[in-house]
Amino acid sequence: MSVAGVLVLPEDPPGGSEGPSSRLLAQVVAELVGMGLRVFVPPAADLPPGLPPLLADTRRVASVAMWLRSQEAAGPIVVVALGDGGRLLPALALSQRAAGRLINGYVLVDSRAPAPAMDWPDAPVTWIATGVGEGVEADGALPARLRGFEVAELRDPAEAAAAALAAIVARKAGLPLAGAT
């Protein structure tokens, strides 16, 4: 099943335009667009300062869900979460089910896996460490494997990691890849 596009949840708080995660994000988006995929990168939610983290996460999920609805992304999507964006996935999945939108898969990039929930994950999950972002525990692959996630550790330079990450997302999106059998 092909997808309507790829939703990319950047790190929160944003790493800034010069951070390694931001450069990786820009490279991955360029690769995915070059493959013919529609890529959705929501704007940062307008949150008041000092908001408790749980409430901030709730408002961020609502903001992403409303923004995605405004983009008219009909059909299934693949969700890519960078860094701290991974913790939003269970709530975002619930919002997309409520909107009647299927999710074909999740890709966690330099992110800790969210706590298990009865209804998440509802699609295959790939956990990726690029060595580009910050804050990923060195032993993050073990919990991902124990939960049955596909695990990839991309220790190449940023450009090679971006290309490999884009290929993983494209595979989840159902795109045929050159050289694939």
Please name the defining characteristics of this protein.
alpha/beta, 6 strands, 16% strand
Describe the 3D structure.
With 181 residues, the chain is an alpha/beta fold. The chain has one domain: Rossmann fold (3-Layer(aba) Sandwich), CATH 3.40.50.1820. Helices cover 36% and strands 16% of the residues. It is built from five helices and six strands, in the order βαβαβαββαβα. It has helices at 20-34, 53-70, 89-98, 141-146, 158-173, and strands spanning 5-9, 39-40, 77-82, 103-109, 125-129, 150-153. It has a six-stranded parallel beta sheet with strand order 2-1-3-4-5-6, with helices on both faces. Strand 1 (5-9), helix 1 (20-34) and strand 2 form a beta-alpha-beta unit. Helix 2 packs parallel to helix 3. It is globular, with a radius of gyration of 15 Å. The two termini are 18 Å apart. The model has no long low-confidence stretch (mean pLDDT 81).
